[in-house]
Here is the input.
Amino acid sequence: MMDKMFSAMAVCLLASFFTLLYPAQLSAEEQVSPPSAARLLEVIVVKGAQLPALLDKAMSNYSLMAVRHGKLVPIPYQFDDLNTGGRSYVKGGVLNVDGKAGIVEAIDELVFMYKDMGVQASEALRAQSSGTVISELQINDNNSVRYAYLVAGNPERSDKVYSHYDMNTGLVTAESYSLQLDPDNLLILSDWIIKDFGDASVPTNVLDTLKMRVKGKLGFSATVDNEEIPAKALAVKNGPVRTIVEADTSIRILGISIASGTVSATFSAQTIKYPVFITLPKAAGTLSSLAIDLTLDYVDFDGSRYRTALGPKEPMITGTKQAATQRDLYKSDLANPWVSISSGNNWDMFLIFSHQDNFKPTLNAIYRDASAGDKAKKPERFKGSNSEIGISLSDIPVGIETSLNYNFYFGAGLWQGDDVDETLDELMNPAVVSVKAL
Here is the structure.
């Protein structure tokens, strides 16, 4: 009798063990390798030309899905039309749509987050989905294979939103940060609140302000800063993955119009981009010199590490007197257009400049620091804030239309010790997506 009781108990325990084990195994099978710090923030862009099954069809009829817990579930995505300047189209903005709004065309873009892709879905699993699975999107990157699926006629949509801009207040709210912009000028930034910064129990502001200075010379020198450069937000597209805010802007110095164009400030979970479509008139060539500086002035970043594309591999330590003599060793140029800082508080940042081929100024790195003897340069919100990093453009060509981009990438773990090579390689070389019709 006792033997039978123990046998029954053993069977129950064994059954319970396999009941617990099976979901664990299933979950493990669904896992993909964790993305690197750079891939974690990456917004995947798939051109309409890669999606022939969708061409000339309405963007609204599709869902993007990935495998979660044994099912295909919706992940955040958006389709973006392009405008006549080659940027994301924003209804109500300055530039018209290139083609037809809301219709998938070869130049248009499907965007989603690298980190939201999952394992491959079986044919049986695809068949269970509402609608018709028409395309399998695959990334094979550093021995990690990830998948997502385009589904036609499926009403399911993810409720996850990675970024949002409020036209009335100028506040950007994103997954890892918030950023206060002046609603009357997209070039005026104030509080940049970073979540999970260091050991802080509450989000931390890291920014004094963004500083843009345009310097010209015609017999004598003059400077205008971003507070004097109009860039009022005109329209916004708040998508689940990225937010695009469009503004019209122009720059005059010494009575001469030197630039006019549109800014399409773009915000996602861990990136901020300022693409500019710009006309540089020949009249600007009457200036004997023209330069544009763009920097971020941080708050309390003493003791951070600073690196540039060219110069020592060993970082410079910010907030020190030694920085006054060391900073000239840290350089960048147009072929190596980046600067970076590691705060030591679970947050690193890269500023990477990019441009069209017809725009070839001279590019240099900028580093300023009160501890290194630099005097404050307005605008300033916090006295003695440290450190100020960015890039300078000089020898600017005129008589052209062109595009240029100031791109900010930020988050934890972008530096591996003092090494940034792996991160830079991934930031400069986005993951490649292959599309398979099903």
